[in-house]
User: Which sequence fits this backbone?
């Protein structure tokens, strides 16, 4: 037991002992190993075997024993290492990150806390190959490897495709998985996927409260409490409340979230987890500033263009999750996950359009939109580990079924009851006029029913200690029924999608992996939000995404993980005008993204932690589409991006942090008419351990007060970056 306790202390994973331990002397373990590899070496020859339960739990039991045992003992500790990660999202099995044949960036809870991150936009700045769009001031909208989407989000591997701004209060880590991968995630993940892994109820006591305040009226608090209440039950509660202003005039946000969770150890072979989240987000829908003569207009970055009092976003999210995991045998596990979500979302904006040729007047328009959705998704997966001679297999078979019902309603804003747009002086663009919202000629009012059945199979094969193979495919049937309340029209379409994936991993030495991979994904013609269907799009084939990638990953003994990847991502079957009849739509459009990326995460020394990423991308239209001509550059894809964060522990009671964000120039829209300039931003931090239960930190964003533009939604909705901002956080344990 002493050896296992020491292993737990060093590896920071749970060890569950499902049997009586023999009185044997354990050999020492040395080298750079994953926790499962190290534990298996530690108990070799003792008559015990180790197996994975989940990403942070290993179980020890008698070899070839299926006997029931009472009251399993758990030794628990929370993982803190930035490197040498074991990940289950990319393959749905516990796999060392270095053996996943795909570019994956993991943003840990520690990095999130050290930088005081609060949004997905903060997170993806440290995910090479991803930029965050403005999302019309009401939603997360990333562009991953040149492909923009609002539906590429997941929570614990389950689709989270509603349009809203996500918070990080209950997040253990965020995983950026790049490249088409419909095998694991299903339709629509053409550029990649962003997965949030939430905090689970554990037997380790957790009791801390954090308060934060700072520039521009930042006011935020968070609570994280939990522990085992018996040998079989653990509880956890995460909560957050924020009521903050922003550096932009008349812009604010109020949001709160609660997330209770429970874990049950139902015998030695069964684990049940459940949680519920209620999240509310009300904010000013801020569309930024317009452009003038191909550049962001020269205006005070704080100025609101439009009417802030009539620009708002209201999101109310309720999600319940239940997971049952059972070990049928030591090599055979089954897992069932059920998620029900109810999402109410409405936003309204009075926002800027173009500036006239004199630069003196700016047009202002308005609309509102309501999107409500209920979603029920179930995943059942069976994992089987078997060896045939010297070759070992990890087989995964899964079934995913889903039902999503959506209602969509859009209204156009009529100023003083008649005009769909007005002009305002460029020097005084914040207006206050009566606006009546009602349906215009083309405004949507519809209901959609989307049902999905997906079957997937994957085999991870270890041919030799130096060679691994992964191959699989997903067969997905996607049915969409569309009812138009405007004219009573009913439309239906069905897509049968086959998405293969294959990868080869070569391991010249244990900590080094060199890989090549190929993956496919599809996007049905109803779009990533399946919010509209017409007589034309009803007949179109889905768009296809193909990702070709080679790369390498290295785990360094200090705890540092290095990665590099080169890729080409092709998007085909895009809609285009028929040259013989421009009124007709044909599917000859295409797009290509080529690039490479570098990553480094973990510990350079016992005192020096590092998170760094670099991406070089070139995304362009290769064949004419409805929006662009061949050669046009894809919007919001800078050629070069760099992010670097260093934290150094100068003394056991205090440390410092320093970071840099660089973003090359990029186009605001696909017409390439407006360019957002490149920028370099410096950040800093200071960290203080005041006592065993009390710590504080100071974060400074944009240390040198650089003026820059971070992103856009179109040529005339451009978001200025924040001026220098200081935030102070205090965390107390109890």
Assistant:
């Amino acid at each position: 037991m002493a050896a296992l306790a020491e292993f737990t202390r060093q590896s920071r994973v749970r060890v569950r002992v499902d049997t009586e331990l023999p009185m044997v002397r354990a050999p020492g373990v040395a080298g750079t190993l994953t926790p499962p590899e190290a534990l298996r070496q530690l108990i070799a020859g003792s008559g015990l075997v180790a197996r994975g339960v989940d990403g942070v739990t290993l179980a020890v039991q008698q070899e070839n024993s299926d006997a029931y045992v009472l009251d399993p003992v758990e030794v628990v500790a929370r993982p803190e290492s930035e490197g040498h990660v074991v990940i289950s999202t990319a393959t749905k099995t516990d796999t060392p990150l270095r053996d996943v044949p795909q570019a994956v960036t993991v943003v840990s809870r520690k990095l999130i806390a050290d930088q005081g991150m609060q949004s997905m936009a903060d997170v993806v700045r440290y995910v090479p190959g991803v930029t965050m769009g403005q999302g019309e001031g009401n939603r997360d909208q990333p562009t991953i490897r040149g492909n923009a989407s609002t539906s590429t989000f997941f929570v614990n591997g389950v689709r989270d495709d509603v349009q809203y701004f996500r918070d990080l209060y209950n997040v253990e880590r965020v995983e950026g998985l790049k490249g088409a991968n419909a095998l694991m995630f299903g339709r629509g993940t053409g550029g990649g996927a962003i997965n949030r892994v939430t905090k689970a109820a554990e037997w380790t006591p957790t009791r801390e409260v954090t308060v934060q305040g700072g520039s521009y009226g930042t006011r935020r608090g968070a609570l994280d409490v939990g522990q085992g209440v018996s040998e079989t039950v653990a509880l956890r509660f995460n909560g957050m409340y924020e009521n903050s202003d922003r550096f932009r005039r008349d812009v604010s946000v109020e949001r709160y979230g609660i997330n209770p969770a429970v874990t049950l150890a139902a015998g030695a072979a069964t684990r049940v987890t459940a949680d519920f989240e209620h999240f509310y987000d009300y904010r000013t829908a801020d569309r930024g500033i317009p452009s003038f003569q191909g550049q962001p207009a020269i205006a005070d970055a704080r100025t609101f263009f439009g009417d802030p009092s009539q620009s708002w976003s209201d999101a109310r999210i309720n999600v319940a999750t239940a997971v049952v995991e059972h070990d049928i045998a030591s090599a055979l596990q089954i897992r069932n996950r059920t998620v029900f979500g109810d999402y109410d979302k409405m936003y309204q904006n009075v926002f800027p359009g173009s500036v006239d040729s004199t630069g003196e007047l700016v047009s202002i328009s308005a609309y509102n939109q309501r999107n409500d959705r209920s979603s029920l998704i179930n995943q059942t997966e069976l994992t089987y580990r078997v060896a045939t001679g010297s070759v070992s297999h990890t087989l995964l078979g899964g079934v995913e079924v889903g039902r999503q019902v959506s209602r969509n309603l859009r209204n156009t804003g009529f100023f003083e009851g008649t005009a769909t747009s007005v002009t305002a002086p460029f020097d005084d663009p914040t207006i206050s006029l009566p606006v009546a919202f009602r349906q215009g000629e083309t405004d949507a009012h519809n209901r959609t029913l989307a049902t999905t059945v997906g079957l997937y199979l994957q085999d991870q094969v270890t041919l030799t200690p130096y060679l691994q193979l992964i191959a699989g495919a997903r067969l997905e049937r996607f049915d969409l029924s569309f009812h138009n309340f405007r004219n009573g029209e009913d439309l239906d379409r069905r897509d049968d999608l086959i998405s293969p994936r294959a990868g080869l991993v070569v391991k010249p030495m244990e900590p080094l992996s060199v890989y090549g991979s190929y993956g496919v994904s599809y996007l049905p013609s109803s779009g990533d939000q399946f919010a509209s269907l017409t007589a034309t799009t009803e007949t179109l084939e889905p768009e296809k995404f193909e990702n070709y990638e080679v790369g390498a990953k290295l785990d360094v003994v200090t705890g540092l993980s290095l990665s590099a990847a080169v890729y080409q991502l092709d998007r085909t079957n895009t809609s285009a005008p028929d040259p013989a009849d421009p009124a007709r739509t044909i599917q000859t459009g295409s797009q290509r993204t080529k690039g490479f990326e570098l990553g480094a995460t973990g510990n350079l020394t016992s005192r020096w932690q590092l998170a760094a990423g670099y991406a070089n991308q070139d995304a362009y239209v290769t064949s004419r589409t409805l929006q662009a001509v061949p050669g046009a550059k894809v919007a919001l894809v800078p050629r070069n991006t760099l992010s670097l964060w260093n934290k150094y522990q100068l003394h056991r009671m205090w440390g410092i942090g320093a970071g840099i964000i660089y973003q090359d120039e990029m186009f605001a829209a696909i017409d390439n008419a407006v360019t957002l300039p490149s920028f370099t931003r410096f950040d800093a931090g200071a960290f203080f351990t005041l006592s065993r239960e009390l710590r504080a930190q100071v974060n400074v964003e944009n240390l040198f007060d650089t003026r820059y533009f971070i992103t856009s939604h179109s040529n005339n909705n451009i978001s200025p970056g924040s001026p220098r901002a200081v935030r102070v956080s205090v965390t107390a344990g109890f």
Remarks:
- Residues 2-11 form the longest helix (10 residues).
- The chain has three domains: 2-75, 86-197, 198-733.
- The CA atoms of residues 180 and 592 lie 13 Å apart.
